[in-house]
Specification:
Elements: H1 2-35, H2 38-73, H3 82-88, H4 93-141, H5 156-159
């Protein structure tokens, strides 16, 4: 069982490192989105996707170990949280798992907050794009001249006022 607990600690540590990297990427995304540079946005999204895949692989390994621990401890997997595991194992693992649990909860909260902020930025950017497209569409309905952005082909007479 000691080996399983050591492997679990290693996986949790790796997950925390990746969550920390993800937080940095989400922070970068917060500033990259409004700038509108497509290459920078693509780079941030690629990094985010890579980290997500790495986290998924670690999570699968963690669940496998948790499944083995649940069998060994005769506890249902659904009830075997890190806090519960900390109650069932001896030191130094008990303290480690309590600490990991607090760190994961804190990072999860930060990730949720940054995702909400980025969603807000994305939604407002899309709204701005939609408004811009409507303006361009309206200009085209007035026979907007692409060569001369300050002139409407023959339609300017409609907008002139008489003095």
């Amino acid at each position: 069982m000691q080996d399983l607990l050591d492997r679990l600690s290693g996986i949790l540590l790796k997950e925390l490192v990746l969550y920390d990297k993800l937080l940095l990427i989400l922070s970068d995304q917060r500033y990259t989105l409004p700038a509108g540079n497509a290459e920078d946005i693509h780079e941030v999204l690629t990094q985010q996707e890579t980290l997500t895949l790495e986290l998924k692989a670690l999570e699968e390994a963690r669940l496998s170990i948790m499944n083995k621990l649940s069998q060994h401890l005769q506890k249902p997997l659904e009830q075997l949280t890190l806090i519960e595991l900390a109650k069932l194992v001896e030191e130094p693992f008990s303290t480690k798992y309590k600490k990991f649990s607090k760190q994961v909860k804190g990072m999860t909260k930060q990730i949720e907050d940054l995702n909400q902020d980025n969603k807000y930025l994305t939604d407002h950017s899309l709204a701005f794009i939609n408004i811009s497209l409507r303006v361009f569409t309206a200009c085209n309905s007035f026979d907007y001249n692409d060569q001369d952005p300050f002139h409407l082909k023959g339609k300017s007479a409609k907008f002139q006022t008489t003095a």
